[in-house]
Amino acid sequence: MSIHERLAISLDWMRNHAPNVLEGLNPPASAAEIARVESAIDLSLPPCFKEFLSLHNGESGIVGALLGHGNKLLCCDNIIQQYELDQDIDRSCQDPDFFSVSLTMLSG
Predict the structure, then answer these.
(1) DSSP H helices in the chain
(2) Is 65 or 33 the better-scoring residue by pLDDT?
(3) Which residues, in sequence order, are CB contacts of 54 under 8 Å at separation 6+?
(4) pLDDT tens digits for 67-79?
(5) Please, which pLDDT band fits residue 1 given cuts at 50, 70 and 90?
(6) Banded model confidence at residue 2, pLDDT cuts 50, 70, 90
(7) Contact 66, 49 (CB under 8 A)
(8) Is the Cβ–Cβ distance between 70 and 63 less than 8 Å?
(9) What is the DSSP track for 71-99?
(10) How far apart are CA 56 and CA 73, in angstroms?
(11) Integer Cα distance of 2 and 92 in angstroms
């Protein structure tokens, strides 16, 4: 079963049982937006996720409505922002002074 078929089943269920979730899905991402994500993170997205983004560029409604448990499906711009934030955190954690400053702050 393709992502389109699975998504059609999910969307049909949402129309009948959770229309507020459906309203929170963003319009499609363009091929250029998806390519920009892949370029920014220097990875190829899985085909099924690219296909999903081409139908709905993440969600903007109730946080975690689609994925549940407070997890929000990010749009292309937010995927890039989150990746950049994760990279900054990773660089900070590799700084030898990071842990000594953190421990000083915790013990002081």
Answers:
(1) 3-17, 19-23, 31-41, 47-53, 76-94, 96-107
(2) 33
(3) 28, 29, 31, 34
(4) 666 778 899 999 9
(5) confident
(6) confident
(7) no
(8) yes
(9) -----HHHHHHHHHHHHHHHHHHHSHHHH
(10) 10
(11) 41
